[in-house]
Amino acid sequence: MGDALTTNLQELSRTLFSAADQLWTNSNLRPDQYAQPVLALIALRQMEAKFEVVHADLAPHYTGRLRPSPADYQARGAVFLPEKARFSRLLSLPGTADLGAELNAAMKGIAETNPDLAGVLPQGYQGLPNSVLQELMRVLAPLKIDGDAYGLIFEYFMGQFASNYMQKGGEFFTPASIVKLIVEIIEPYHGAIFDPACGSGGMFAHSADFVRRHHKSPASEINIFGVEKMSDTLRLCRMNLAVHGLSGDIREANSYYDDPHHLIGRFDFVMANPPFNQSEVDRTKLVTATGKVDARFPLGLPTVNNANYIWINLFYAALNPTGRAGFVMANSAADAGGSERELRKKLIETGAVDCIVAVGPNMFFTVTLPVTLWFLDKGKAKGLRGDKVLFVDARHLFSQETRSHRVFDPNHIEFIGNIVRLWRDEKIETQAGSGSRMTELFPDGSYRDVLGLCKIITRDEIKAQDWSLSPGRYVGVAPGHSPDEEAFKVILEALQEGLEGLNAEAAQLQARIAQNVAELLSA
């Protein structure tokens, strides 16, 4: 999709969200309740667009009383829509019709003929006034765009709901540019993909986009597996998959304690944005009755009250012998001491740590602190790169989308991905416009260390730095910056991360106190 079309879609998405946002004031639903019905309407509009295309392809092959079955549509990446569930029919209903009841029946009819969507689509439309529903459908009706473009609109709406209304939005929505960078680096061309904290499914959707971009069919190339502990978010994930013409095995479970997919050594790719610095994980549930640590934690368990290295264990354990992982991690995990340092040492000594990318602040909706992207590659461990790690400092690469939010542009994503490709001795890509920058910094078309941007470090050098995986320790200071300035940034980032953690704990305590007071007053 060209840059101009993408820009037009972003503008269209903003217009649509503004209209929907104004309509929210005319309902008695909370924003988190309002989000799902609106997103389902966008999904329905997309489903019909895709349904019509597939129906036109199938129709010539069926004559007389013969009709395509729901399975015929599903095999071509479309959701089968019974007559009562089609957007065009709902839009043509008279103004006196009970649109809330009609939409509830439509969502029920879709679920009955598409098992992947059972229990996913909302049934709360009668909580919205008829006038609000009619206006929402009127706003969506004129859209005449390619089916995949609806995915961008759907994603924009999810991001806006996360940013504007949901304090914990980051737990279900990872900004698209972060996901795209992870996908660009792990290159999920073919195989089983797993996300044990899958939220709304962005990792899966962008993996499918990556496969399409390389002229393959996601349905035949990738298999999707996920875990999500929140039922509302799980429904959002399945809806997101449907919008993108995908299906997957998504289970409701808590990845700390449950293993519904029998993850050990199973997956070609693991991608995740787990909750940062989470405390109070019940460690007694992570060991067997005889006190042996669960096999999902092969590096061992940390002794500190922080789950970062519990997640890192899971990601590593889930990979097959040639599997790759890419995940978001709090900066503090790269330098943490004590038992976490020992676990990090064990991970580095496996040879599976492939690449570490530092990302600047304000890339997420609900936290301002910078993060680090970790990439593992078990297949690398026995090769020539086995005792080396590539460090990339991408903190200076971003576009300021709004005053408080930054993104990676497509050329940033391609550029960082190309640095990793050179490190892996792979062919670079230049469709997104990174060619000139690559020529400037890598003039002979092969990898080289670039001060302030990237550097290859040996295991012995990492050991000398107390097993740190912080890119700032290794890549040096970019031209125009002073060492003192960089050191100050590192200290400030650590303080900011600590403050974010304290703020999260304070919010939890405040909610608990409010609940306790409410229970006392109602007693």
Write a short abstract of this structure:
The protein is globular, with a radius of gyration of 24 Å. The protein is an alpha/beta fold.
Instruction: Summarize the helix and strand pattern as letters.
Output: HHHHHHHHEHHEHEEHEHEEEEEHHEHH
Percent strand equals 5-15%
Determine the number of helices (DSSP H or I, runs of at least 4 residues).
17
Number of β-strand runs = 11
CATH class of the largest domain: Alpha Beta
Count of individual domains:
3
What value does the Rg take, in angstroms? 24 Å
CATH architecture of the largest domain: 3-Layer(aba) Sandwich
Strand pairing plus helix content: what structural class? alpha/beta
Largest sheet: 9 strands, mixed
- Name the average pLDDT: 85
N- to C-terminal distance: 59 Å
State the helicity in percent bands.
40-55%
Walkthrough of the structure:
Helix 1 crosses helix 7, helix 2 packs antiparallel against helix 7 and helix 2 runs parallel beside helix 11. The chain folds into 3 domains: 161 residues, N6 adenine-specific DNA methyltransferase, N-terminal domain (Ferritin, Up-down Bundle); 288 residues, Vaccinia Virus protein VP39 (Rossmann fold), CATH 3.40.50.150; 40 residues. It is of the alpha/beta class and 523 residues long. The chain has 17 helices and 11 strands. It has a 9-stranded mixed β-sheet. GO terms for molecular function: DNA binding; N-methyltransferase activity; site-specific DNA-methyltransferase (adenine-specific) activity.
Features:
restriction system, 3 domains, 523 residues, Ferritin, two-stranded antiparallel ribbon, Rossmann fold, 13% strand, alpha/beta, 11 strands
